[in-house]
Amino acid sequence: MYNGKLLDGFVVFVEVVESGSFTIAAERTQHSTSYISKEVTKLEERLGVRLLQRTTRTLKLTPEGESFYQRARDVVDAAKAAEELVSGSQVEPTGLLKITCPVAFGLTMMKSVFTEYAQLYPKVTLDIDLSDKKVDVIEQGIDIAIRASDRLEDSSLISRKLFSDTGLTIASPAYLAKRGTPSNPQELSQHDIISYSYAKNPKRWVYEDLDGRENVVDINSRILVNSAQMELEMCKAGLGITRLPRFYLGDELETGELIELFTDYPKHQLGAYMVYPSRKHMSAKVRTFKELVEKTLARGE
Q: What whole-number distance in Å separates Cα of residue 3 and Cα of residue 18?
């Protein structure tokens, strides 16, 4: 049976995670520290799992706690949004909105979003950082970050998956005519590779073989570059083989300017995500931008 106190436990737990302290969570919710501790303990007992690892100095989410936190944050956000909607307390978006986004993604997928938002909300000042370097969202005071990755690691941040895409291994006809066409990923070790320098390991690419097993391929990174756009241009110039998300490409495959390799192999799966800090109250400027991104780009995933 549903217990009306359950939502209170969600709110307390989310506040503890976001503040990193039982004491600070108690101050923010205007409760005692012992009440906060008891609420978290009751929540853990109800769920039958430990959500937090507690020491005298630190609090750390368990793997179960990380998964539950994302869901609990959604519930708390939805409850607050419903309350604001009914009370009519939402205000007109104003102020500075800081956004970071990969360069190529910003110039293609996000261009119309930026333009439309600026037209809809003239009282918001947009600070758009187009950069392929992954920045610290909290430290840099970023309101929303757009990221393309095969996985996200920031458990302290809220993430919304916008859509899935595939990573394609590509080369120009000129390069393949000169160096030959590799028939499988293992043969990439004999080729010149244009690698993304911000990747976790730019000298190793992971492929799934025809049997569904994951294989790591050591590659010869002849060129390391920190821009997906430059990767694409160097590839088109015949300087080597690269791997890029499909949405970074225009019509190069259709026109024959570039050729996709290993088409019989399972494609590398990537996701486009919207990431933002966990905050007690989402401002109108962040909420409206988030909603516009979801309306424009989200594909029901």
A: 24
Which three-class secondary structure string do you get for 199-239? CCCCCEEEEECCCCCEEEEECEEEEEECCHHHHHHHHHCCC
Say if residues 170 and 256 touch (Cβ distance below 8 Å): no
User: What's the pTM value of the predicted model, to 2 decimals?
Assistant: 0.62
pLDDT digits (tens, 9 = 90+) for 192-248: 999 988 877 778 898 887 777 888 899 989 999 988 889 999 999 999 999 998 888
> The domain containing residue 32 runs over which residues?
6-87
Q: Does 195 share its domain with 219?
A: yes
In a domain, 1, yes or no: no
Number of CB atoms found within 10 A of residue 36's CB: 24
Q: Which residues of 191-223 are buried (b: 16+ CB within 10 A; e: fewer)?
A: bbbbbbebeeebeebebeeeeeeeeebebebeb
Q: Smallest Cα–Cα separation from 280: which of 81, 5, 125, 65?
A: 81
Q: Could you give the CA distance from residue 85 to residue 66 in angstroms, rounded to a whole number?
A: 29
| 230 plus 179 within the same structural domain | yes
Tokens 């095969």, located at residue: 150
CA-based diameter of the chain, in Å? Answer: 72
User: How far is Cα 237 from Cα 234, in angstroms, rounded to an integer?
Assistant: 5
Same domain, 261 and 210: yes
Asked if residue 287 and residue 142 are part of one domain, the reply reads yes
